[in-house]
Design a protein that fits this description.
alpha/beta, Flavoprotein-like_sf, FMN_Rdtase-like_dom, binds flavin mononucleotide, Rossmann fold, 25% strand, oxidoreductase activity, Flavodoxin
């Protein structure tokens, strides 16, 4: 079945105004007028389901770095969807943004390892932000959203 509109799913754990800023920048990039034919659906990581992933043509994941890992909420998302999605969502384009106080390395490694296990295809380098997000960080988040949208656009 062909569809004129592709769906970009943003699964995020947004726990503070800083993370909200990053999320909004990603969403603004994903919904830019420069890209046509893409609708954006957002889901809190604790509410997202395997069906949300099945229905997505691309996915963006957002998390704080917590104790050297992704947030428990995003881990819960992966625990929920991993086996249902394992055969169904291979090659799904994905990208990741992470915010931390000082070190996002473990969170990035953890997400990339699971996404690799799922066979998802990274389409943009992770946007990693530490401390208060400056203009460059917010632009990187915008770019991340726009890049995934452009990747799955049918136009
Ligand atoms: C329990 C806990 C563990 C955390 N662990 C890390 C960590 O390992 N690396 C890091 O860079 N930031 C860590 N942080 C900071 C969070 O990533 C940060 O609070 C979150 O991204 C929101 O940013 P904000 O507090 O500036 O709003 C931790 C925060 C909490 C509450």
């Amino acid at each position: 079945m062909s569809r004129d509109v592709r769906r970009l799913l943003i699964v995020h754990h947004t726990t503070s105004p800083t993370l909200r800023e990053l999320f909004e920048a990603v969403r603004e990039g994903a919904t830019t007028d420069e890209v046509e034919g893409v609708e954006v659906v957002t889901r809190a990581a604790l509410a997202a389901t395997a069906v949300d992933v099945f229905e997505a043509d691309g996915i963006i994941l957002g998390t704080p770095a917590n104790i050297g890992y992704m947030s428990g909420a995003l881990k819960h998302f992966f625990d929920t969807v991993y086996y249902p999605c394992l055969e169904e969502t291979r090659r799904l384009p994905y990208a990741l943004y992470v915010h931390g106080n000082n070190d996002t390395t473990g969170a990035v490694r953890a997400v990339e390892s699971i996404a690799t296990g799922l066979g998802w295809e990274r389409v943009q380098r992770p946007a990693t932000v530490t401390g208060a997000p400056g203009k460059d960080a917010l632009e990187a988040c915008w770019e991340l959203g726009a890049t995934v949208a452009a990747t799955i656009s049918p136009v």
